[in-house]
Amino acid sequence: LLVHLKRFEYKDGKSVKRLDQGELPRKFNNYRLMGFISHIGRNSLSGHYVLYCRRPDSLETWYEFNDEKVFEFKVSHPDEPFERNFKLSNTPYILIYRNSDSSLMYLPPF
Question: Are 34 and 54 in contact (CB under 8 A)?
Fold first, then answer.
């Protein structure tokens, strides 16, 4: 399940980034948050996109995919609100959920 969050709006002819995160659910019905795409920058005309993905078998272990660099890190509060573990400037705009009832641990290759 992919959820797109509106992060940019136009005011007075300018693109403005919305920094409000609200509460980003780690669970949504039968779905569990597996990753998100984040925009780092001030507006829609500039910035950088980074992918964060969680290990399917761990709530604490995440990976940051930033161009050719991949970093593994642990979140310190996996069951607490999103903003306790990630910076406000890393505003997610696409949330990636996986059906928790699924028996697939990994997606098959194309």
Answer: yes
Q: The tokens of 33 are what?
A: 């948050």
Q: Which of 99, 95, 87 is nearest to 5 (CA)?
A: 95
| Nearest of 94, 108, 103 to residue 34 by alpha carbon | 94
CA–CA separation, 53 vs 27, rounded Å?
15
Q: With beta carbons less than 8 A apart as the criterion, state whether 88 and 19 touch.
A: yes
Contacts of 35 (CB under 8 A, 6+ apart): 51, 52, 53, 54, 95, 96
- Structure confidence by residue, pLDDT tens digits, 77-110: 666 655 555 665 567 888 899 887 765 555 555 4
Q: How far apart are CA 79 and CA 92, in angstroms?
A: 18
